[in-house]
Amino acid sequence: MSEPTLASAVVDRLRGDILHGLLAPGEKLRLEHLAPRYGVGRTPLREACCRLASEGLVTIEDQRGFRVAPISRADLLDLTRTRQQLEPLALRAAIAQGDIAWEGEVAAALHRLQRRAPASGSGTLDDTWEQEHARFHSALLSACGSPWLLKFHATLFDQTERYRPSRTSAASAWRPSPGPTCWI
Asked: What percentage of the chain carries pLDDT values higher than 90?
């Protein structure tokens, strides 16, 4: 496997900062301010923003640059409904096609997830738990046999992560009960 490009590394860091709420929904992404933060020039940042725009995490404004994609109640409801339709489809396919190795991966992912406490002492979600939660969902669906379903799932999962109450005060107003969400 080859080394990730500088732009790919910036995409991963920028995606993480958006998903963890370090860059707020609707926030203008000023490349001149982000460059020192990520230790890169404007060109890799511009490429990273364009890639994240294709994932729906960033918006492009003609002649004005980039913004973190906004969030809304309607978007959250649409994401939720779409995941509720897509994930069972992928899970049924994974169960039908999964082999003993897949079952082992799912069991191991579940074991790792259960060994972590979802919330830290401060009531926010534990970062390691969140990573294991995502890995568990990925493991469940990994044998579905459809790269498209897996890609759609990953995109929807990331988009949904932006709405966790620990990420934004607007999201917590929409979801009165804090804590992890698991549809499958």
From this structure: 65
